[in-house]
Design a protein that fits this description.
Its EC number is 2.7.1.2. It contains eleven helices and 13 strands. The chain is of the alpha/beta class. The longest helix is centred in the last third of the chain and has 25 residues. Bound molecules: zinc ion.
């Protein structure tokens, strides 16, 4: 029997989305289960296996026709050894996942989830024409993946692309989840957007945001974006501030990597129209002109499938099928 399929597993803190795809990345079937990370390591590993068996069952193919399984993991990984090093939201630290999934009898390929998402957008989404691409996802945090000559740049320990932890404001009093102060994701993510909105409402500013919520604590990034869309001046100013910070970080990425494409994903990409002009003007002010001319900044296309298609792309890339 010919082996003409791959499986992608998007392992998340709250759900596992697994799909079987052909070698062009067309999804034949998908299975989604709650991760239930609180049940512990063995339960999560069993659930990964269940989704693989389950998704194969949805099709008329056999697991023996699957050439490889790509696994996107929310944390740093050791790709060669097949080890999940650390997962803030799962109890899978220092787990050799290739060993644990041995019974599937199929090659397993690990990738950090943001890097996998970058591969997904590169091969199946907004970045199809890209050779040197940066994928950035701006939601509760800022993550990313760097693609050089159509391949993920992994770095010395498979951890390259942690773009959200560039220090942008050295004397900031906003602490990042990583422990540092003034990281890009601490000051320019959707979380930061919500925080600035909340502070404005709590300070009693005259803003539509206070009418969109029952309590100031409910102000999040989506509320600020909604108020800004309706023309609220305070919310607009906050969006501009975030846009400026995003532009500062992007200008550095442009100067360092000279990408042909930057793909913007995550929740903030939904509000891209609101911030695009300000982001571009900051980039124009801060990046080198000749490099700005080379780069095309576009929004992501894969939506909630980015993780699972990224895992599919990871398997295809490792099998030299892209
Ligand atoms: Zn950080």
């Amino acid at each position: 029997m010919q082996k003409e399929y791959v499986v992608g597993v998007d392992l998340g803190g709250t759900k596992i989305l697994t799909a079987v795809a052909d070698l062009e990345g067309n999804i034949l079937a998908r299975v989604r289960k709650d991760t239930e990370a609180e049940k512990g390591k063995e339960a999560v590993i069993q659930k990964i296996k269940d989704t693989v068996y389950g998704v194969i069952k949805e099709t008329d193919i056999d697991l023996s026709q699957v050439k490889g399984i790509g696994l996107g993991v929310p944390g740093p990984v050791n790709i060669k050894k097949g080890v999940i090093k650390h997962t803030p939201n799962l109890k899978l630290d220092n787990v050799n996942i290739i060993e644990e999934l041995r019974e599937l009898d199929t090659p397993i390929f690990l990738e950090n989830d943001a890097n996998a998402a970058a591969l997904g957008e590169k091969w199946f989404g907004a970045g199809k024409a890209a050779e040197n691409m940066i994928y950035m996802t701006v939601s509760t945090g800022i993550g990313g993946g760097v693609i050089i000559n159509k391949e993920i740049f992994h770095g010395a320990g498979d951890a390259a692309g942690e773009i959200g932890h560039m220090t942008i404001i050295p004397d900031s009093d906003v602490q990042c989840g990583c422990g540092n102060y003034g990281c890009w994701e601490a000051i320019a993510s959707g979380t930061a957007l919500g925080r600035l909105g909340r502070e404005a409402v709590e300070a009693g500013k005259d803003t539509l945001m206070s009418k969109l919520v029952n309590d100031p604590s409910e102000v999040n990034g989506a509320v600020v974006a909604k108020a800004a869309e309706k023309g609220d001046k305070v919310a607009r100013e906050i969006m501009d501030k975030i846009a400026d910070y995003l532009g500062i970080g992007m200008a550095s990425l442009i100067n360092i990597f000279n990408p042909d494409t930057i793909v913007i994903g995550g929740g903030v990409s939904q509000s891209w129209k609101l911030i695009e002009d300000k982001v571009n003007s900051t980039i124009k002010a801060r990046a080198m002109n000749s490099l700005i001319e080379d780069v095309n900044i576009i929004t992501a296309q894969l939506g909630s499938d980015v993780g699972v298609l990224g895992a599919v792309a990871t398997a295809l890339a490792e099998l030299d099928l892209l």
